[in-house]
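Lecture notes, unit on protein representations.

Consider one protein chain, 166 amino acids long.
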Amino acid sequence: MIGRAFIVISFIVMFAVPVAAQQTLVGKVTNLPIPRYVSIRADEANLRVGPGGQYPVRWRLMRAGMPVRIVDEEEQWREVELYDGERGWLFGSLLSGARTLYVTDARAPLLAKAKPKARVVAFVEKGVVLRAKRCEPGWCEVRKGDVSGWVSRSSVWGFLPNEVFD
């Protein structure tokens, strides 16, 4: 009897641990995945040291469209991480679900197709924010103004490692 119970318990533990390890974290307010990427909606946004208006402003962000990674949620506030690793809290209404990417390379080629030898449509400089149409393994289709093309994922920031979206 003890042997059979041990086998049953071992079987349950063997299969329960991998399932638990695969669970995605979700925000306690929105039930959306954590971490996730969004962009700043407002032209000016105060990045605070804590989740509330009473907390001091760490940085004043002056760029609508900048991508940020949401890493935590508290009521109407979202803890975000910027491309350089800086963290702070933004009021939720200052954020948009629009996907954007931040160019991290000094000069990244924007290509006509998602192929390394494709025709170069334009070059984008470090710090430029691109609107992401979709991302697939290795490449993201982007737009900046009237110019569209494909950029290598290694040249931009604003997506999870294995994330694919359109």
